[in-house]
Write a structure and sequence with these properties.
Elements: H1 12-41, H2 52-57, H3 60-78, H4 83-107, H5 112-140, H6 144-178, H7 180-183, E1 186-189, E2 198-205, E3 208-215, E4 218-224, E5 230-232
Antiparallel strand pairs: 1-2, 1-5, 2-3, 3-4
Helix pairs in contact: 1-3, 1-5, 1-6, 3-5, 4-5, 5-6
Length: 239
């Protein structure tokens, strides 16, 4: 946290600089998220075939939390909040939310540990965005001590996000498999009805399409150049 009480107001230029600074980080996050996601599905090899843009797309779930942290930092510095208020917002509020989750588990059947783990993951991702913006802000204001401190926190937060991304991807894949009817469209060979093997369209990978064939508890995956011989069936409605 910054110890300087007097600062020049931040500008939108800093958010632009932040976007440029984290772009390489987002690509790494996307790689790690995709690795965890496809590994959980059962086709870890797919992540090596993703295009640059597709890899960035897989950074989106984690990247949104990072961007949220950046906007929190921008809002706080715009109002020149004291270090004490910064600590309350950045540390106190997440702790209060987690405590509320565990308290709620006394009265309702909820997976408090899993929900809290998700909140902590989001919070740690937000810290990366927060400290990255603070580092840029202190650098522009020539606050060397605060810049060094914020930079150290930003780098440590970045490595934390890198370690969290595969787990977040894995959890998302687990969720998708549990809600397969609403997450992956069912496909079938044109003119062929029934069959013991269920086929699902999973994702676009480069110039090809990732297809999953499911028979009982067994899943197989392959890439197909086009879907000309297949028809996509209507998806079930759901959350």
């Amino acid at each position: 946290m910054s110890k300087t009480t007097e600062r020049h107001p931040p500008s939108l230029i800093e958010l632009g600089q932040f976007t440029a600074v984290i772009a390489p980080f987002l690509y790494i996050i996307g790689q790690k998220y995709a690795t965890g996601y496809f590994n959980e599905l059962g086709c870890a090899w797919v992540s090596s075939f993703l295009s640059f843009q597709e890899t960035l797309n897989y950074a989106l779930p984690t990247g949104l939390a990072v961007l949220a942290g950046a906007f929190v930092a921008y809002a706080m510095f715009s109002r020149d909040l004291s270090p004490k208020i910064q600590v309350i917002v950045v540390i106190g509020l997440p702790a209060l939310i987690i405590a509320a989750v565990f308290a709620s588990s006394i009265f309702w059947e909820i997976q408090a540990a899993k929900i809290s783990s998700m909140i902590i993951s989001i919070w740690l991702c937000m810290l990366f965005g927060f400290y990255a913006v603070e580092a840029i802000h202190t650098f522009r204001n020539s606050e060397k001590g605060d810049f060094k401190e914020a930079s150290c926190w930003a780098l440590s937060s970045a490595f934390t996000v890198f370690s969290l991304a595969p787990g977040i991807g894995s959890e998302m894949a687990e969720y998708d498999l549990k809600h397969i009817e609403t997450r992956f469209p069912k496909i079938a060979e044109s003119g062929v009805l029934g069959g013991s093997t269920e086929m699902r369209l999973i994702a676009k990978v480069g110039e090809k399409f990732l297809i999953m064939e499911k028979s009982g508890d067994t899943r197989g995956f392959y890439l197909k150049s086009n879907l000309d011989t297949l028809k996509i069936l209507p998806m079930s409605r759901g959350l």
